[in-house]
């Protein structure tokens, strides 16, 4: 007698198991479903159907396969000879609460992409692909689709592919209408072209690229300012509603900056996020150098003046919390500063210079 395969089903046991399941089902009427527990699988499927065309628009030729697999596939091809992969992850923070209050969910996804791709751009890396994580208590398909539309738009601006994501519906973890976001990106740069700040010296100056507003940092303080000042999100601020100025999506610097890399001697770069101008630029400057910033070299947008006045916030606190109108900086040889600024389609003023460090002070405003 041949021994049956270890994995072969036992018809008797299968029959008994089916009878047991049937008896369990009959004993409880009506039976509970996942939807009764607060998770709507049909809503999740509806969201996937809604976002498929959005994801298709945020793609690249290197992407293999489509939406719905267990993993996103990306083929590096032969573009890189000695690539270094650079990864980044971030969220949007309490700016989400402002978006929820304004019932505007279509730009917050741009913030999510921007916070990730701008970080890896600092190394000179080209963002290749992006994944998102969307968590909520109850899936509201329209709002979630708006969020993903923003993510797809951010990927389009950054020329990276949206190759995957996760939607987690977790009743009890989040309240009605609440959700949270996280993003993950991977880019690549040739090892020989990696920008790490090691070439920065006293011959270098700092060029500033403008921000679109507070970007995605300092919103716990911003919301506190709104609370204590009694401000309305509908009130006018330099020709637009205050809420619109505060919700302006984070600027994505990938295209203009990558156009410079390889053509100019870019010694270092910094994404101005939490910590502001005070703490971010020195992260890429060698320890034996310091930074002198000219606060008169640019004019911050009106939203920063409003925050300082409405919240009675001191200058030092403003500088280490907000980007103050400068969202990204380039550290370059002074001899190339004019040429680099001229090659950009925007103003890129010299906002500071590298100096020899004396003592503990790393940043000085003049």
Extract low-pLDDT stretches: 1-25
Mean pLDDT: 90
End-to-end separation: 93 Å
Please outline the major beta sheet: 6 strands, mixed
Beta-strand segment tally? 14
Tally of individual helices: 12
Overall spatial form: globular
CATH superfamily of the largest domain: PurM-like C-terminal domain
Proportion of beta-strand residues: 15-25%
Provide the helix percentage: 25-40%
Helix/strand-derived category reads alpha+beta
Q: Assembly state here? A: single chain
Topology order in helix (H) and strand (E) letters: HHEEEHHEHEEEHEEHHEHEHHEHEE
CATH T-level topology of the largest domain: Phosphoribosyl-aminoimidazole Synthetase, Chain A, domain 2
Rg calculated over all Cα atoms: 25 Å
Q: Using the 3D structure, state the CATH architecture of the largest domain.
A: Alpha-Beta Complex
User: How many domains would you count in the coordinates?
Assistant: 2
Instruction: Tell me the strand order in the biggest sheet.
Output: 10-12-7-13-11-14
CATH top level class name of the largest domain:
Alpha Beta
Overall description:
This protein has 366 residues and is of the alpha+beta class. It has 2 domains: 41-193, 2-Layer Sandwich (60s Ribosomal Protein L30, Chain: A), CATH 3.30.1330; 204-365, Phosphoribosyl-aminoimidazole Synthetase, Chain A, domain 2. The protein is 35% helix and 23% strand. It contains 12 helices and 14 strands. It has a 6-stranded mixed beta sheet with strand order 10-12-7-13-11-14. A 4-stranded mixed beta sheet has the order 3-6-4-5, with helices on one face. Strand 4 (126-136), helix 5 (141-158) and strand 5 (161-169) form a beta-alpha-beta unit. Helix 2 (41-57) runs parallel beside helix 5 and helix 4 packs parallel to helix 5 (141-158). The N and C termini lie far apart (93 Å).
């Amino acid at each position: 007698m041949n021994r049956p395969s270890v994995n072969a089903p036992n018809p008797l046991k299968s029959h008994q198991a089916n009878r047991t399941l049937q008896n369990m089902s009959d004993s409880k009427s009506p039976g509970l479903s996942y939807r009764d527990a607060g998770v709507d699988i049909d809503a999740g499927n509806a969201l996937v159907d809604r976002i498929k065309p959005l994801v298709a628009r945020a793609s690249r030729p290197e992407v293999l396969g489509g939406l719905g697999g267990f993993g996103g596939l990306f083929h590096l091809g032969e573009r890189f000879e000695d690539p270094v992969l650079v990864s980044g992850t971030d969220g949007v923070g309490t700016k989400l609460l402002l978006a929820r209050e304004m019932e505007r969910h279509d730009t917050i996804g741009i913030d999510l992409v921007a916070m990730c791709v701008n970080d890896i751009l600092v190394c000179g890396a080209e963002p290749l692909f992006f994944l998102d994580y969307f968590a909520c208590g109850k899936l509201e398909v329209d709002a979630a689709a708006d969020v993903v539309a923003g993510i797809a738009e951010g990927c389009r601006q950054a020329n990276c592919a949206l190759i995957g994501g996760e939607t987690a519906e977790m009743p009890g973890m989040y309240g009605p209408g609440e959700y949270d976001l996280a993003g993950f990106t991977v880019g690549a740069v040739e090892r020989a072209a990696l920008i790490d700040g090691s070439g920065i010296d006293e011959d270098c100056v700092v060029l500033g690229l403008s921000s679109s507003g507070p970007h995605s940092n300092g919103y716990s303080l911003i919301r506190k300012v709104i609370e204590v000042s009694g401000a309305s999100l509908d009130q006018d601020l330099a020709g637009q509603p205050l809420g619109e100025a505060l919700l302006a999506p984070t600027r994505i610097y990938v295209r203009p900056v990558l156009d410079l890399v390889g053509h100019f001697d870019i010694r270092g770069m910094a994404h101005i996020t939490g910590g502001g101008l005070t703490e971010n630029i020195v992260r890429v400057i060698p320890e034996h150098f310091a930074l002198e910033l000219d606060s008169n070299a640019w004019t911050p947008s009106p939203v920063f003046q409003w925050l300082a006045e409405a919240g009675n916030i001191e200058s030092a606190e403003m500088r280490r919390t907000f980007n103050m109108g400068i969202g990204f900086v380039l550290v370059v040889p002074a001899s190339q500063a004019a040429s680099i600024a001229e090659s950009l389609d925007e103003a890129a003023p010299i906002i500071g210079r590298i100096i020899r460090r004396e003592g503990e002070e790393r940043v000085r405003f003049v």
